[in-house]
Structure formats: C-alpha cells, structure tokens
Structure of PfkB family carbohydrate kinase:
Amino acid sequence: MANVLGVGIATLDIINELDHYPAEDSEQRALSQRVELGGNVANSLRVLRQFGHPCDFAGVLAEDADGRRISDLMDRYGLETRHARRVDGHAPTSYITVNRATGSRTIVHYRDLPEFDLGAFMALDPSQYDWLHFEARACDETAAMLALVRARVTDQPISLEVEKDRPALDQLWSFPDIIFFSAAFARGRGFDQPAAFLREARGWAPQAILVLGWGSGGAWLSRPDEDEPAHVPAQPVDTIIDSIAAGDTLIAGFIHARARGMGSLESLEFAVRLAERKLSQAGLAGLGPDDPAADPDLLCRLDDLEPVDALGIWPQGRESSGGPAPLIVVREGERVCAWRNVCPHNGSPLSRDRHDFLETREGERQLRCNVHQAYFRLDDGLCTAGPCEGQRLEPVDLEQIGNRLYLADRATRRDERETPSGALAEKPNGMKDRG
C-alpha cells in the first residue's frame, strides 16, 4: 500500500437532507441531519484509508470544540494528524443542504483560519511518502511547497487538485505529475466541452497526466504522449442519493488504482465506478473494503503502529469527548498488547495525547506517566521507577484478525465470514491471532 500525504483542508460538515430545496424566506423541516468530516483532501484521504493506504493529513486544525471534533473524526477514520498545524480560531464549517429529490447539494462555507504554509510544511520529510497530494489553495504557498517536494523526491507521484480558480494559480502547473480538474473550474475558464479544455490545459502542464471529472458525463483523461483526450463514460445511477464528495472520491479512486500499478485509463475507469457507488449512498462509509466506519469494533491496524510504538486508542463507537484515550496499544515488532491508560499511582492517564507515551530510560523504550514520571515496561506493564514502583498497568485482552486489532470480547462476537479459517492461537498477554 502507498503511504499518502494529503495537504489541504479539513472541515466539519453539517448536512441537512430535505425533500425539496427551500424557497427564500421559508421554513422547512429537515428529513435528516448528520455531522461529518469534510474538506476535499480530508475526504479523499478517508476514502484512500478504506483501501488500506496509510494517510497523513497536513493542514490547519482549530483548537475549539468543532476543531477537536474534526480531530476525533480523523482519528476514528484512521487519518494521522501529526503534521497538522493547530491554532486558535473557529474551525471551518460547511452547512450543506441536500435535495433528496435530485441528489444535488448547496454548500455555505465559513472559514477564518490561516492557510497551511511553507513554514509548517518544512517540518515534515516528504521523502517518506509514496504519494503526495495537494489541494490548490493559497497558491504562492502551494507553489513553494510543490517546488520543495519536486526537489526532494524522486519516484513518488505528486498530484494536485484544482477545484476552483484562485489568484496566482497558473504558477502551479509545472510541478505535478497528475492534475485533477473539476468541471466547475473548466467551465469557469470558458469551456463547455471537456476535450477542448484538456487540449488547452495540455499547453499549461505538458509533463502531467490531466484528469477532468464531468459529472454525469463521466471523466476525461489527457496523457502527455497522446494528442487526443480519452473518455470514460458514466454508467446510469438509478437514484442519486448524495453527491457530496463525489469528486473527492473520484480522486481517491484514481490515486488508489495508480498506486496499485494500474494504467492511467484503467485507473480512471476504476475511479468513475467508485464515484458512481458514492452517488448511490449517503456519505463515504463503506466505499472501500477496510473502512473503519464499516467495522465499528476495529481498534486499529498493525501497520498503524511503528515497529516499536504506543498509541492512545478510543474503541470505536465511543465518543472521546476530548478526553484521554482509555487504552494504550503497544507494539514491539510483531508482538502487540494493550493496557488501560490509567496510572496505578493515582488513577490519572499516563498521557492525554494520542502519541506521547514512549520514552527511552536506561537504554530501553518504556511507557511513561507524564504526571508523576513513573515508567512501565512494554512487555508486562511493570513499573520500574516512580511512586508506584513494583505495581503494574492493567492489561486489556486483544485479538488480531489478519492486520486488524480488536478487543477480544468484541472480536469473538464478529460474524464468522470475517474470520479466516484456522484455530485461535494464544499470544502473550492475552493476544489472540485469527489471521
């Protein structure tokens, strides 16, 4: 799987579904309401995560209640936020009206946060990623980030999403390997024919694969070595339920297919079919085989953890409410165990941060309580120093199914079709493996 970095925006979407679009100065009862993670890059990363790709988000997150909710949703969907810049301010919110009669949506967006900039971007190492995807925003900063990446990476694809026209946008064309254009952008530049737009855009970015989504018209593809664009027609969707993030899904489908080694036209075919599936359902849940939302008992995957790592985990289906994670999942090589995030000294959490558990003490990686500086061995939870020396952390039994980790009591209740054949094998510290 490809390790993907996405640079862009994450929002909180408040989605009201109506049986028809309201008239001005009217009152109408919503048929349903849901609150979801939104934002172009965040949506694409969420879909990519469902196909097993480790995904890191680089953008700006607010420290207010809505910002914490965005962070919690990203954690829930398996998106890493260690590179996010966290600031005071109002989290970006999108108020979305979905017309059930047509599947169309109207968005009112509010944002007062600064953009992710080159200074924040320079804190990460782009060479560790297999794919780097950017949203075309704050184009002077985006150009600087793209130039930096172009100078530092070798074989990793760089892709750019262009949803709307922005000041200084044209300086971005020379950097990406793949550019995704929206139909709204093409029409805004005066084109109502996809092929004509792509022929024009070929002169802007002669080095890049160009992808243009065209709604019910399917999608179009222009490759550097071909004179005429290729077309993947759309297939009829019986009932369009929800068009929110259909374009973001198309992008994720193309990135996934290319990362798996498919050709560009084959990748576009996969992407169009995936976007059609998205149109026929509400939300993004369940588009890929490894969607955490479709597997609510999933704690995390083995490849979410470094070879020696400790991760704060909220069991799925429980709200974190901004508080500390109740569990710590620990990995040492292929060995995995879990402990309650409770110090035996006074019941406080070892850490309130998702990642701040490990420290090297006397040449050994150990868990540390940040409150009273107690240290605990990774393998058996024994306190080696501090006010509770000699006491142990409380273990939590896990069960491993392939690459996925569950609480043991939840995993054993799962449908048998999720269980590979073979007997349970006991592992140290209550860990079982059914993979």
User: Anything to note?
Assistant: The chain is about 20% helix and 30% strand.
